[in-house]
Fold:
Amino acid sequence: MKNALKIAKFEFVRIFRDWRLALIILSQPIVIGLIVGAMSYHDPQGVKVKLVNISDNQYANEFITELVKSDKLDITQSADYTFDDVKSGEFRAIIVSDIKDNQDDAGRITVYNAPTAGEIQIVVGLEVAKAAAQTSQSIARNRVQSDVTDAVAELKSELPDVVAAKIKTIEIKSESISGVDVETEYATSTTIHRYDYFASSMMILLMFLVVFNVSGTSITSERASGTFERLLVTPYTKSNIIIGKAITHFCIGLLVSIVGTLTMELVFGISLGNITLLSVLTIIAVAMSVCLGLLISAVTKSVVESVQMATYLFFISTLTCGMISPIENGLKIYTTTIKLLPFGYAIDASRRINLAGAGWNHVASDIYLLFGFFVLFLSLAIILLRREAR
Amino acid sequence: MSALEIKNLSKIFDKGFVAVDGISFSVNENEVFGLIGPNGSGKTTTQRMLTTILSPTSGEIKFGSRIIATEADRYWMRYRIGYVPQGDCLYRDLTIDENLEIFAAPYKMSEKQKKDNIELLLDQLDITGRRKSLVRNLSGGLAKRASIAAALVHNPKIVFFDEVTMGLDPNSRYQIWKLIKELKKTATIVFTTHYMDEAEELCDRMAILSKGCILEIESPEKIIAKYKAKDLNHVLGEIIEKEL
Structure:
């Protein structure tokens, strides 16, 4: 252990003596944290949509009245039914309202989403659903009113005039037929914003980015400079070297996580869950990713190969963590394969702790699995580290 | 007594290339033994096997009375050898002091002994004044002297030098020659070089290698006499001509 600590000490000195390298490492969590915050701080608002109303009746107008109340949509009404505005990027969606004043057919509302709209599709769909729900309530009330009025008229026609005159018009009160309110809320908190979702993932992804690159090239760069070969002629063991480097890179990974989280918390007020649990998760995730990085460096032949592998792994981690696309969207082979990778467990657990207020019993299995991956990667890095030059 | 004894040592790389082909020789205690030969003759591969960087395909390496066969033997051997590679191969972002500290760390010596050894080496190699300089800021000669210090910090029994004076100015070469002659009093030295004047000056005996085989093992004077050549350069020239 003494030898490992000696390697750790000088690995740390080497990295942080070069102020430019230190600056690059430490600025990443700050700059990327700020960009993520600026990028996703608000829920979507002012989404530009085109509304084409092809009907002209009270219900169609009522739908439009309801829809324009939305503070999330920036609606431009138009009679133009072409999709050129979507192709030019001017509108994120075209809403075509064809609500009919017809007993047998209530008509339809079609939302044509721009394929580039991404998650904005959900916002547009929800706003349309809200307005449609209100309109449907109005349609239902009017139709019941109409039926009742007809029934009363028919009844009056069959009764003596004296009796019929005493029957007054029956009016359906608006409260009698209530509409359905369409709302979405988070299951565990009302203070979570879209930014929190990204920030919780980015806390871990940022650390992966830095650690994979630092650890992934650590041994190959020393092989290239000849110092590693020289180290191997001394009595340093493979575990001394791997553990020594792992200690330093672990400290760097932890530092990056802390700086990234603090930036996001101080500037944007990220939603944080149980800090102790989050710390345990972060510590194990950093240790796991350091050992994976060192494993890359132990088995690759050159710095270029290591950099490619580190980048490769970073993209795999980004694409399998569920941040960009929900895991449920994937093919079965995708959803099955990502269970064999550690990244999703780290990021999903981070999101559940921060966003859903998960406790130890909710994320224990993820943490145990990450610990298992850490032990696996550490063992493999030590076993597969070549003492011999190629 | 032999400090190092090699029997039928071979190295065949993955693609079937025979780099070293069953060579045998022994190196006596406190002897300067040279491995000489043209490029690709197998001298560096031989030295890499002797310094545990490469495993032999076959053959036997005996260090003193112990046969080096297992990883445990190699680990034992690493406590007893010093290696000065061709480049300085030091951590360029660390100072000379820090490099010596990291290379001295794994040896079983007291902290005081390590410190004393470092002070003595810095003094002997005349680099005390630059001990706090980063290696990246040193000249080639100074970096090489620091590299030698890193290899000697644990008082090794055998020191391997790999083309140690390559690219150095005459004065730096002369300083290193002086050091090797001094070091010979306490350690056995195995070195490779392309400079034949260096081999003549320093070697008690030398092995001339060609295509992985040993052609001659003798003192430089006897080899020159055998080939009736003017100097070792001519001997090697004759050998390369025969190869072609």
Remarks:
- The CA atoms of residues 84 and 200 of chain B lie 20 Å apart.
